[in-house]
Amino acid sequence: MSVLRKRSRSQADVEHQIRHELSEILPILRIEHCSIELDAFDAATGTAVLHVMGGCKDCDASAVTFMQGIEVQLKRRIAELKFVVANVDSTA
């Protein structure tokens, strides 16, 4: 019997998938004049830092939307992702 091993993906592959998944979410965020992009991904810890820009940063619901919506969706789709951190742009 052969044993199938899960192939480990490179950091670049994971970053590419994060960016792709964010591009799928972006049209919905633009309705609220918000944008999100990947700042950094640490493969050792599985942590993605996302740069949050635009109108949503001042909204009381933005933290809930971010944590319950975007983070959950990204983690469901990207096995390597363990933590998501928001870096809010306070100058936008």
Write the layout of secondary structure elements.
Blueprint: H1 11-30, E1 34-42, E2 47-54, H2 62-77, E3 83-88
Parallel strand pairs: 2-3
Antiparallel strand pairs: 1-2
The CATH topology is what? GMP Synthetase, Chain A, domain 3
**How would you classify the quaternary structure?**
single chain
- Summed up, the helix count is 2
Count every beta strand, where a strand is a DSSP E run of 2 or more residues.
Answer: 3
Mean pLDDT: 81
Give your account of this protein's structure.
The protein is of the alpha+beta class and 92 residues long. 39% of the residues lie in helices and 25% in strands. The protein has a single domain, classed as GMP Synthetase, Chain A, domain 3. The chain is built from two helices and three strands, in the order αββαβ. A three-stranded mixed sheet has the order 1-2-3, covered by helices on one side. Helix 2 links the parallel strand 2 (47-54) and strand 3 (83-88). The protein is globular, with a radius of gyration of 15 Å. The N and C termini lie far apart (57 Å).
Task: Name some characteristics of this structure.
single chain; 92 residues; 3-stranded mixed β-sheet; alpha+beta; GMP Synthetase, Chain A, domain 3; 3 strands
In short:
The chain has two helices and three strands. The protein has 92 residues and is of the alpha+beta class.
